[in-house]
Design brief:
This protein is α+β, with helices and mostly antiparallel strands. It has 19 helices and 10 strands. Among the domains are: about 150 residues, no CATH class; about 90 residues, no CATH class.
Length: about 450
């Protein structure tokens, strides 16, 4: 690959700054395509070792060989940010990717969800994750690969089960339940309360232990790390390391449509304004842009199958056109995909983009199947509820240590994959070291219990 693209990085950064983008410095690096796939699969350049990442790598490799997948870049927000570009990219592709990365960098520095999660985790997540990997390697050397893998199996099976509304470094539950005190609002009641015979005879208040958990707890990584009956400290550290990295990944997941659309809007705009780019490179970059933001074609179009680059790009173009850049930046800072889609994916734009469900017959006839805008919003957003995972919470620990979990499908209407659920329960039971009972519903809506062991 030619190194000429690096001579354009500073000029594109200067143009982005003059255009109003505000971003932390970004380290750009060209890497082999195989390393690109490893980064994409592991989620970070260096991460804890586990067999599941190998399975994902093989899947990505097959997808690429079938022509279904091509990675131009992988970006890690932070201060500084890190951008890895595929060594197979041409000059035009890297010019476009550089502009695209700066759009991401502007988004991650200024979006409130990104800022809140990065402040709790670290703005240097690449180095932070490398430290986690070293800690786990030390655990492998001390306790053996088999024992460490048991813990990683359970932790990574639960990596989506966090609660980002809670603090990353939250305290354990109070040991005792709060005492309900009667209101004492006049001299007579105060004197009467002081004559409480129970208090007078014992000289102390009776404390009642609080139940564990005191409420449904959906942060399963935190809960198990803190309340598993026999979990050792090094096992707890692995659970908390996985949880910490999940806090980092959550904003990427929760703002994908906004974020990819914002980066695509800005790479298109910066390309148009970059008079210093050679004509042929500009033409090639625009062709590449068209490929990135094209809709997904199929015989039956469903909102779930849309290209997030295409939808986000179209929405930001419409917002800037109608409301101006200041309003667009306010939306970028405040929203996640839930607010973005529900507030700004209008019926007009949905019809223009052909997002309503329709079927296309072989004879060319097109039939619209659904035009409900709310249903369209929910179809786009339903995979995003609860970090894409079923809503499962810890609800009770029995006297014998049995952990009760409850699946709530009322929010997203999704059922459980029973085979996968049984496998996850087996993983978790090995670190909980007591029975686990998961209550869910079957296809008929009847209560169903899964147990381990």
């Amino acid at each position: 690959m030619s190194e000429d693209w690096q001579s354009y990085v500073q000029r594109i950064e200067d143009l982005a700054g003059r255009s109003g983008l505000k971003f932390h410095p970004v380290d750009f690096e060209a890497v082999p395509d195989t390393f690109m796939m490893e980064i994409a699969v592991y989620g970070l350049p260096v991460r804890m070792p586990h067999w599941s990442f190998g399975v994902r790598y093989i899947y990505q490799l097959i997808q690429r060989h079938m022509g279904n997948s091509r990675l131009f870049e992988v970006v890690f927000p932070g201060n500084p940010g890190h951008a890895y570009l595929a060594a197979s990219n041409g000059l035009a592709e890297n010019i476009l990717v550089t502009a695209h990365v700066l759009g991401h960098a502007d988004f991650s520095r200024n979006n409130l969800l990104f800022r809140r999660c990065q402040e709790q985790v670290s703005e240097r997540i690449v180095e932070h994750a490398a430290n986690h990997a070293r800690q786990i390697q030390q655990a492998i050397e001390t306790y053996g690969m088999q024992r460490v893998e048991v813990v990683l199996d359970a932790a990574l099976a639960l990596e989506q089960h966090i609660d980002v509304d809670q603090s990353l470094r939250r305290e354990r539950y109070p040991e005792y339940a709060a005492q309900a005190k009667p209101l004492v609002d006049d001299a007579f009641r105060k004197r009467f309360a002081s004559l409480d015979p129970t208090a007078a005879s014992t000289g102390m208040e009776t404390k009642k232990r609080a139940p564990v958990p005191p409420h449904s707890e959906r942060d399963l990584l935190w809960f198990i790390a803190n309340y598993a009956p026999e979990m050792e400290s090094w096992e707890r550290d692995i659970f908390l390391a996985v949880r910490e990295e999940s806090f980092y990944f959550y904003p990427v997941f929760a703002t994908q449509i906004m974020n990819e659309g914002w980066a695509s809007y800005w790479h298109a705009r910066l390309l148009r304004e970059a008079s210093f780019i050679p004509q042929q490179a500009y033409v090639d970059a625009i062709k590449c842009h068209s490929d990135v933001v094209r809709p997904v074609a199929a015989d039956q179009q469903v909102a779930l199958n849309i290209n997030p680059y295409h939808l986000g790009f179209a929405m930001w173009e419409k917002i800037v056109e109608k409301e101006g850049m200041d309003a667009a930046r306010d939306i970028m800072q405040q929203d996640d995909d839930f607010g973005f889609i529900r507030n700004h994916l209008t019926r007009e734009l949905a019809e223009e983009l052909g997002l309503f469900r329709f079927s296309a017959r072989s004879d060319g006839q097109v039939k619209v199947l659904e035009t409900d805008l709310t249903a369209l919003h929910e179809a786009v957003l339903s995979p995003k509820y609860n970090f894409g995972a079923p809503m499962v919470a810890a609800t009770h620990i029995r006297n014998d240590g049995t952990l009760e979990l409850t699946h709530d499908n009322s929010v997203d209407g999704r059922g459980l994959d029973l085979e996968r659920s049984r496998r996850v329960l087996d993983y978790v039971q090995r670190v909980w070291r007591r029975p686990i009972v998961l209550t869910t519903v079957n296809q008929a809506g009847s209560t169903l219990e899964l147990t381990a062991p």
